[in-house]
Specification:
This protein is an alpha/beta fold. It is built from 13 helices and 12 strands. The strands form 4 sheets. The protein has a 4-stranded mixed β-sheet with strand order 3-8-5-9. A 4-stranded mixed β-sheet has the order 4-10-6-7, with no helix packed on it. A two-stranded parallel ribbon has the order 1-2. Helix 8 packs across helix 9 and helix 10 runs antiparallel to helix 13.
C-alpha cells in the first residue's frame, strides 16, 4: 500500500453488478485490515448511504473517503496528518480532475468562500475528523449531489477550525456513469447548488459573518449559474453588482470605458452609493466611482448631492464616459 498510515480499510459493496463483490471478498480474505460491508439484501443505496454504513464501523480518529474513480498518490495521508495541530475538523486538500485536459483544483483559504464557490476540496481530497463527521449527522442520504459540501457546512457550523495540506496528491477520474455525473434529474441537481449556497449565506448572515468578500463571491457564483440555469427555487442576489464586476473584468486597468445610456450611469452610481461600505473594500470599484475625470463623487454626501454630479456626467459625456 502507498499509504502506510492506514490501519483500517472498509469496503462497502453497493449492489454492483460488474463482479466487484467477488473482488472485494478476495481482498477481505487476503488482507486482515480490510472489512467488507454490504447493504441489506445487497441493495444499491448510493454513495451517501454507503459512506454512512462504513462510518458506523470506523475506529480511527481520521477518515479517508474513497470512490472507485479516485486515486491517492504516495504520501497523501502522511502529508495531511503532518499539518494537523490538534482540534481541526477537516484537512482540506488540493486535487486534479483528470480529464482530456487535467484541471488542478486549489481550495480557497477562506473556508466560507470555499463553500460558496465549491472550492474547498472534495470527499477524497480532504481528510475528515471522525468525531465531527458523526457530530454533524453523517452524510445526508436524500441529496442528489454536492453531498460533501452539505456535510462540510454542517461540520464547519460546529467547528470552523481546519488545516490545509501542502501538496496535490489526489487524482479524480470523472466517469460518465458515476453518481456525480449522471444526467438524470439534471435540473434538480442544479437547483441543489442554489439551495446549498442559500444555506451558507443564511448561516453567515445569522452569525454576522457575511462580509464583503463573501457577499462578493456569493453574488458572482450565483450570477454565473443563473446564466445557464433558471432555478425552480427563489434566488436572491444583486444583479447590478454582478453586471458591474463582469464589466470591470473586461476593462484595462489604465483605460476604463463605461457606456452610459438611458440613465444607466445614474443606476450604476445608485448601486455604489447604497453599497458604499462594501464598495470601499474593492479597490477597482472604489477608484471607478471616485476618479471620474473631474467629477468627484463623495460617497459620504447625501444622495441628491451625488445625483446631480452623475446627471452632469451623463449630460456632458453621453453616451460614452472615459475613465482613466
Amino acid at each position: 500500500m502507498s499509504q502506510p498510515e492506514i490501519t483500517q480499510i472498509i469496503l462497502v459493496e453497493d449492489g454492483s453488478t460488474d463482479g466487484s463483490l467477488e473482488i472485494c471478498r478476495q481482498l477481505a480474505v487476503s488482507h486482515p485490515s480490510i472489512t467488507l460491508l454490504r447493504h441489506p439484501n445487497g441493495e444499491n443505496k448510493g454513495a451517501p448511504a454507503s459512506r454512512n454504513l462504513g462510518l458506523s464501523q470506523v475506529v480511527n480518529p481520521w477518515i479517508q473517503f474513497m470512490d472507485s474513480d479516485d486515486e491517492l498518490l504516495p504520501g497523501k495521508i502522511a502529508d495531511q496528518l503532518q499539518v494537523i495541530k490538534g482540534h481541526e475538523c477537516l484537512v482540506i486538500g488540493e486535487f486534479t480532475n483528470v480529464k482530456n485536459k487535467p484541471e488542478y483544483i486549489r481550495p480557497r483559504r477562506d473556508i466560507w468562500v470555499g463553500l460558496l464557490t465549491t472550492r474547498l476540496g472534495n470527499s477524497v481530497a480532504n481528510l475528515w475528523n471522525t468525531h465531527w463527521v458523526k457530530a454533524a449527522g453523517g452524510w445526508n442520504e436524500s441529496l442528489p449531489n454536492v453531498q460533501e459540501y452539505h456535510l462540510m457546512l454542517e461540520i464547519l457550523k460546529k467547528n470552523p477550525l481546519v488545516s490545509f495540506s501542502h501538496q496535490n496528491l489526489t487524482l479524480v477520474y470523472p466517469q460518465p456513469n458515476s453518481i456525480s455525473n449522471s444526467p438524470k434529474k439534471k435540473n434538480i441537481k442544479l437547483d441543489n447548488y442554489f439551495i446549498f449556497r442559500a444555506k451558507v449565506k443564511k448561516h453567515l448572515v445569522e452569525t454576522g459573518s457575511f462580509n464583503f468578500l463573501r457577499w462578493h463571491y456569493y453574488t458572482l457564483v450565483t450570477g454565473e449559474m443563473m446564466r445557464y440555469h433558471t432555478p425552480s427555487v427563489q434566488v436572491s442576489f444583486n444583479k447590478g453588482y454582478y453586471w458591474l464586476v463582469k464589466k470591470l473584468k473586461t476593462l484595462k486597468p489604465n483605460s476604463m470605458h463605461v457606456f452610459f445610456r438611458s440613465g444607466l450611469g445614474q443606476r450604476l452610481f445608485e448601486l455604489a452609493y447604497f453599497y458604499k461600505d462594501k464598495f470601499r473594500g474593492f479597490p477597482k470599484i472604489k477608484s471607478l466611482f471616485q476618479k471620474m475625470n473631474g467629477y468627484p463623487l463623495d460617497l459620504d454626501q447625501p444622495f441628491t448631492h451625488n445625483q446631480r454630479i452623475v446627471h452632469k456626467m451623463v449630460t456632458d459625456r453621453n453616451p460614452l464616459l472615459v475613465i482613466t
